[in-house]
Amino acid sequence: MPLTIPAGVGATITAMSGTTPSDDEGPVAFVLGGGGLLGSSEVGMLAALLDGGRRPDLIVGTSVGAINGAMVAADPTPRCVERLTELWGDLARGDVFGGSVIARTATLVRTGTHLQHQAPLRRLLGDEFGDTVIEDLAVPFHCVAASIERATEHWFDSGPLVDAVLASSAVPGLLAPVQIDGEHYLDGGLVDSIPVGRAVRLGAKTVYVLHVGRIETPLRPPRRPWEVGLVAFEIARRHRFTTTMAALPAGVTVHVLPAGGDPMSFTDRRQFRYRDFDSVPGRIRAAKAATGAYLRAVT
Prior knowledge:
Largest sheet: 9 strands, mixed
Distance between the termini: 27 Å
Oligomer: single chain
Shape: globular
Helix content: 25-40%
Radius of gyration: 18 Å
Order of helices and strands: EEHEHHHHEEHEEHEHEH
Strand content: 5-15%
């Protein structure tokens, strides 16, 4: 049976197999998916979770979810939401994804592979985390990147935090691959866009899924030439999440939190305007309100 997530409502999925749910949530994981600019919705979800007294025992992130997740792993209190909101403002005002069309075209011509320099994002993360290593975070943290040489996922759970987060968020065509110990990495969304399976394998019994809202939109066959690639991308992006959710082990409960607001169609090309930050404050507010209502309903 296909997994259906009602838009703006959220969903609770519990694998039973003859077991009875316990009042004890067990180890709690926050799983933060990828999605670029739309990742601001995860900030609102985090605000609702932390304001509601939910605390993670484990944080697993992909791409922009690795950035958001690293922040809450460093400080799993409502204070991190304030800093995340500031960080998203820094992204909007700063030069991380700045530069004129001419400058970005020049970068693409010079490199042949990407539009933006990696240095501004590295500086932003460096200002936030400095030389922090993953082992020193307040909450265990794992993030995923795609290894080019091995054509597989690579999980970072130790070592320099900034390098790991950069590798996880190196969007193909936008940023250059990140080299670590002689190996090159691209965005983790290529291999595991919403890594619920990793959290379950690490022992989580209650999982809160923070996502960017696209999984709330049902797919349909493409009707225009430019939709063909978008539909194909969405199938690839959702496949692992869907199969993981269908095969949850007994006793695991997954809360797929609602993004709120009007869900963006998977064919809406606005989602690829990576420099348009006008929607960020509204997405944070909508996700916080919708997730808060969902958590009150399931308590």
